[in-house]
Each structure stands twice: as C-alpha cells, then as structure tokens.
Design goal:
This protein is α/β, with parallel strands linked by helices. It has 20 helices and 29 strands. This is Glycoside hydrolase family 3 C-terminal domain-containing protein.
C-alpha cells in the first residue's frame, strides 16, 4: 500500500508501532500517555437536544496534537453531575463518541485515534446502561460461567456505544469488611477472585472490549479498612493472597491493570518499580498497559517535591497512562531536563499504541459501520439471573420458607424494602423512572392471588429515629409472616460531597444516607440501631420473621436463631433484584448462593477471614474467634450429605503432581438443589512457610433432584497443589496435605496426600 507503514493493516503490530513512534515529536508522545480531561467536559447539550464538542476538549487535543485516552465520555452520576437532562443516552452514545473521535483523527497531524475509557463496575456506568449486581453478589453465585456471559454482554453494550476500554474492579479482596469498597470485590478468597477475574477477561475479550483490572495491588488490605490507607503486607502475604487474581487476569489476556492508591512498604503502587516492572513485566512477562488511578501521580509530589519529578518517578516505575493528574502532561520537561530518558517514555507510548492497533482503531475508528456483537442473552436477563443465584440463605428453621399459597397476609417492612437506589450499589448512573423491581414489588408480584401485602418502612436507614416503628409493628402483628428488608445503601444523591477523585466524602459535617461505597468506611459493622430495634419489635409480635439483607458488605450479625425463622443476604442485587429475592422466598427458585466472604460476629474480632495462618489460637474471653457464618456457607431448602473424599492416588511426586479427588453428594431432602461442592487444600507438614488453616482450590456446582446422588470430580495438578515458595515463586512443595471437600470452609472431610520428591 502507499502511505505511512503504520497505516498498513497487513503489517505486524510491532512494526506499525515502531514506524508511528519514529514519526512522533516529544509533544505528541506525551499526549499519548495522558488522559487529562473528564469525558463529560468534552461535550455539551444544545438547546435542540443534540450535542456539540466543547472548547475545552478542542484545546486539550491541540495541547499535545493528539490524545491518548479520554475517561468517562458517557459517565453519569452525582459526582460528574451528569443526568438525563444533559448527558448522553443510549440513543446518542455512538454518535457522540464518533464526533469526538472524528475531531481527534481529523485535527491532528498523525491522526492517531483516542481510546475511550469507561467505568464498567457492574455494567456500563452510563445513562441507559444495564446494571448488574455488584461484584460481591457475583462472587456469591460461585458461577464464573454465568458471570462470563454477563461480562460479554456488558462489553458488547459498551462497544455499541463507542467505548473501547472497561475499567472493572476485580483484584481487591475483602480482607476487612469495614472498607467501603467491599461491594466491588468478588470476596475474601484469592482462588475465587481469580476464577471470576478470568471469566471477566474472557467475556470482555469475546466482545472485543479491552479490560483494565483494578486495583494492583493489595488495596483490600488497607489498615483499619480505611480507603486509600497504607497496607502492612509482607511479601509472602502479598503473593499468597493479593496477587492471585492479577496473575489469572494477566494470563487470560487483560489489556491493562490500574495501579492502586495504597503504598506497599512505604512506596505507592503507582511509583513502585519492583511491583510494576520487576514483578509484572520481568517475572510475569506482561505486555499490557499500566494505568494510574485518578490523581495518584500528583500525590507523589509529597515524595518528590515537584510535579515534573513526580511524573518521571511514575513513568520510570512502569506507569504508562495517567488519569486526571497534572504531572504527566509535563513529561516533556522531565525528558529535556534529564529526569527520565526519552526511551522510557517511548516504551510507555508503544504500549498505548499497541492497544489501539490491537483494537483495530486505525482501520475502524468509528462505531458507525462496525457490526454489532451478538451475545446469547441480553444484559438485563443476565442481571436477573445473577441476582437470583447470589441470594444466600444464611439461617433457616426448616419451616418458614419457602412461602406457599397459605401465606395470605404478608408485611414487608424496613427502610430498603421499596427502594431501587438501595439495591444498585455505588458507581451507578441515574436510572429512568420506573426502572427496576423493589423487594416489595417483587413480593407483591409473586404473592398468591388475593394475598394482602402491606408495607411500612418502620425506621430510617441510619440513626435511631423510631417514630415510624408503631405502624410497622401493627402491620407485623396483623400478618402471617413479616419480611424485614434491612442492610445498607451506597446510593449517592445531589447532596453527597465528593473528593477530587469521585470518592464520597461522608462524615459528621456531610450527612448522607450512604453506609457503603468508595469513601464510606465503617468502624462498626452492626446494623444501625433503628434497624435492630425494628427487628426486635417485630419479632416480639410473635409473627414469623424473614430477614432479607440488602448490603454491600457483610454486616456483623447478632444471633438471630430465636428472632428470625430465616435470614437471607441478597447483597446489592441490581435494579431487578426484588424479583430475584421474591423468587427465592416463594420457592420459585432454590437458594443457590454461597458466602464469598465470612460474616463476623462483631468488628472487634476482625480479621475473621477463613484462610488465616493456622496457629491454633483460641477465641476471645468474651466471644468466639470464629465467624458468625463461615466462607462458603449457604443453606438450601433441602438437605445434602457428603461422603468421604476419595483420591485416585495417595502420594504424588513433585514432578508429576496429578491425581483426581472424587466425592459423592446426595440430596437427602424433598426439593431440588444446586449444591456448590468446595475443595480445600490443608498443609499438615512441610513447605517453606507456616501454613494457612485451609485454602480453596476448586469448586463445582452440582444439580440434584430429590434423592439423587452425583460425583463431584476434581482434577488435581500443580496449580491446585502449588504454594508460594521461599523465592516467592509459585510451585509444588513436598509435605503432607489434606484434600478436603464439603459445603463450606467450616464443614469439610479430608483425605491425606503425600507429596514427595
């Protein structure tokens, strides 16, 4: 073909990148590693209802004769201030993205397309974007295949509106549930998070969507559960717990990772050369991009004293793409002053350009004319399926549920019973009026014909105001069953104050109904006083009580065995979660969810995760050290028995550690069940470090009719038996192990395995 080599679609990507990079000025290179502008500042709504590009956007493109990436073009929420009155709906998404892209391509010397980077925490955070249940609910399904389909559908929705890169939380773990971002995690366990991270990347890649995984690394272990605080992690803890999901995502083909805000051993992740280069690139062979979190590079000025030096520090560490900061735009000064070699900048630019070539943006920069990606299921259907599969039956007396035709008078109580905003979690765009099904509406739709369903809030979401309590108690006393919807909320509104990076600023001076979400950390994990008083008052009427927890973190629960006939956790189940909850309550669907995180008795006993070091410590004098409900726990409407696990071999060698572990499970009750059979490895002797109590290394979902038996078969290999060795690599070590199977981390039966030379 004629023309520049980088325009030749038949040339290798590496060749095209090298050719384009060789044509760039220093100014143009700097532009490619920056995403300075908030995307919603790139356009404005006209009086006719259309959109036009802003002078601020045009100036940003002109500043570096190009633009590396543009964040949040279609983002909408209270922080951005974008809503239906002035934002980009689904009808305009592709058109506006094409207008932005056309300006960049046609008004720059080299015509390099811009990457459109969008938040996809649980669905595209845009007007008319389909909302999925939050990640903690996804983790409760223990069904990576279902999530993979949802990720593919969400990626296709993003691409149809012009987006290229999805920012998705996947790498953080709930090691301290006081942390407000617990809802963004798949759970507390590295293996579970790794399985869902793989599913996320595979699904998005099928939709031709690039994924940047957040946050790298260890952000879920910040001190005191406080957002963006330090992490006091030793190298082994970091490798054993907090890097497994990142390794899985890199292997699956993630396009990028986002460097976390936290510091490791005194060095912020965005400036951590051993992490971003030594581990990620040199050891793992990763060739994708590293993106900074919002404004993170500017925070380095505290170390360097100067924004130019701060940018040089992050670039030298291995950060390729900025986010909103003032330091990276000055990388030209860093190069000319000798703070960083231009070759280091070239390496970062090459990674950004490689992603653009791999996405085909030089051949097809515009959404119009690109064929739509077809997925097997629409996103809304998958959202409902996840919500249904995520419901965890925590406690049950064996009689109260499922509700049957005899339930003629049902009182639905609680501050979250009739609120879609309380169901959808943080990082969510405004919803159109009428979108979604609350728990109250779901119960009304599912109740038998002629049944009376009454409702009262009973109390406020937070605080101890009991003025609404008498009405709720009266309705409960007149009912045959009372369903209490308790928990928390991550709903932002126009009165919420925000930090510069979009985190909520909640405190005594900024009252808010939020009890969870970014920036909303708790010291106490108990339910608010008003909700506990409501629960006690309703239970005192003698009416059977069902508690439904709508929550973004595991709240510390009192002993409810004498208070409630059943306790369920629905997490933040998304807009249509009310229908999913009702399906489980009435037995239209069996409870399938399993806990992805341990439920504490109180915040005082933290940490309570199941896979701590096995030192044989006792409980406290005043309460046990064990969780109220352990990781992996979840009841059903039937009973299931487990036989002893059987191994195909009782000893294996280090160079051929392969065998099978088989366990027979039987439905001994009268209703069907989807049983999640869990496989744990427990080291009894040997190894290079003190062992953990047990570690999840596999799981299988088995559907059983009443009376039916089936075998769950696990293929055991080096990945299953591997552990972090003395040099912090992952390998199989000699010693005595137990391979344990069971329905939760606290109910296992084991078979001994010897691993030898």
């Amino acid at each position: 073909m004629t023309g520049p080599l980088y325009r030749d679609p038949d040339a290798p990507v590496e060749t095209r990148v090298r050719d384009l990079l060789g044509r760039m000025t220093l100014q143009e290179k700097v532009g490619q590693v920056n995403q300075r502008l908030y995307g919603w500042d790139a356009y404005e709504r006209t009086s006719s209802g259309d959109h036009r590009l802003t002078d601020a956007f045009r100036a940003e493109v002109a500043a570096h004769d190009g633009m590396g990436a543009l964040y949040g073009l279609q983002r909408a929420d209270p922080w951005s201030g974008v809503g239906f009155a002035d934002g980009i709906t689904a009808a305009y998404g592709a058109r506006v993205s094409d207008d932005v892209q056309r300006h960049v391509v046609e008004h720059t010397r080299l015509g390099v397309p811009v990457l459109f980077v969008e938040e996809v925490p649980h669905g595209h955070q845009a007007l008319d974007g389909t909302v999925l249940p939050v990640n903690l609910a996804v983790g409760a399904t223990w069904d990576p295949g279902l999530y993979e389909a949802a990720a593919e559908a969400a990626g296709a929705e993003l691409r149809a509106r012009g987006g290229h890169v999805a920012l998705v939380s996947a790498l953080d773990l709930v090691r301290d549930p006081r942390w407000g971002r617990a809802e963004e995690c798949f759970g507390e366990d590295p293996h579970l998070a790794a399985r869902f991270t793989q599913a996320l990347v595979r699904g998005m890649r099928r939709a031709d969507t690039a994924v940047v995984l957040k946050h790298f690394a260890g952000q879920g272990a910040t001190v005191g559960g406080r957002n963006s605080a330090a992490t006091e992690l030793g190298p082994r803890e970091l490798h054993e717990i907090h890097l497994a999901a990142a390794r899985a995502g890199v292997r699956a083909g993630a396009a990028g990772v986002m460097a976390a805000y936290n510091e490791l051993d005194g060095l912020p992740c965005v400036a951590n050369h051993p992490l971003l280069t030594g581990l990620l690139r040199d050891q793992w062979g990763y060739d994708g991009i590293v993106m900074a979190d919002g404004g993170a590079i500017d925070r380095l000025v505290r170390l360097t004293g100067d924004p130019v030096a701060a940018g040089a520090m992050a670039l030298s560490a291995g950060c390729d793409l900025s986010l909103w900061d003032a330091a990276f735009p000055r990388l030209g000064e860093a190069v000319t002053s000798g703070l960083v070699p231009e070759a280091t900048l070239d390496t970062a630019v090459a990674r950004v350009l490689t992603l653009k070539f791999r996405l085909g943006l030089f051949e097809q920069p515009y959404t119009s004319g690109r064929p739509a990606h077809e997925t097997p299921y629409p996103v809304r259907e998958l959202s409902e399926r996840i919500a249904r599969a995520a419901v965890v039956l925590l406690e049950h007396d064996g009689d109260t549920l499922p509700l049957g035709p005899a339930a003629r008078r049902i009182a639905v109580l609680g501050p979250g019973a009739d609120s879609v905003p309380h169901q959808i979690g943080d990082y969510t765009a405004p919803q159109r009026p009428g979108t979604g099904i609350t728990v109250l509406q779901g119960i009304r739709d599912a109740a038998p014909d002629g049944a009376e369903v009454t409702h009262a809030a009973g109390c406020a979401l937070t605080g101890a105001d009991l003025s609404a309590l008498p009405e709720a108690v009266a309705l409960a006393a007149a009912a045959e069953v009372a369903v209490l919807v308790l928990g928390g909320s991550s709903a932002r509104d126009g009165d919420t104050a925000f930090d510069d990076n979009g985190a909520a600023r909640v405190g005594s001076a900024t009252p808010s109904g939020m009890t969870c979400g970014e920036g909303v950390d708790l010291a106490e994990l108990t339910l608010p006083e008003g909700q506990l008083r409501l629960l006690d008052a309703v239970a005192a009427t003698g009416t059977p009580v069902v508690v439904v927890l709508v929550q973004g973190r595991p709240h510390a629960l009192p002993d409810l065995s004498r208070t409630a006939g059943a306790v369920l956790s629905a997490w933040y189940p998304g807009p249509w979660g009310g229908a999913a909850v009702a399906d489980v309550l009435f037995g239209r669907a069996e409870p399938e969810g399993r806990l992805p995180v341990s439920v504490p008795r109180s915040a005082a006993q933290l940490p309570v995760f199941y896979n701590g070091k096995d030192h044989g410590y006792r409980g406290y004098v005043d309460q046990p050290a064990s969780a109220r409900h352990p990781f992996g726990h979840g009841l059903s409407y039937t009973t299931v028995s487990y036989d002893e696990p059987k191994l195909s071999r009782t000893s294996v060698s280090l160079d051929a550690p392969t065998l099978t572990c088989t366990v027979t499970v039987t439905n001994t009750g009268r209703r069907p069940v989807c049983e999640t059979v869990q496989l744990y490895v427990r080291r009894m002797s040997g190894g290079s470090s003190w062992p953990r109590a047990r570690e999840l290394r596999g799981f299988a979902r088995v559907r059983l009719a009443p009376g039916e038996s089936a075998e769950a078969v696990f293929d055991i290999d080096a990945d299953t038996l591997g552990s972090v060795t003395r040099d912090l690599s992952v390998g199989v070590e000699a010693g005595e192990l137990l391979l344990e199977t069971g329905p939760s981390s606290a109910r296992t039966r084991g078979a001994a395995l010897t691993v030898g030379p």
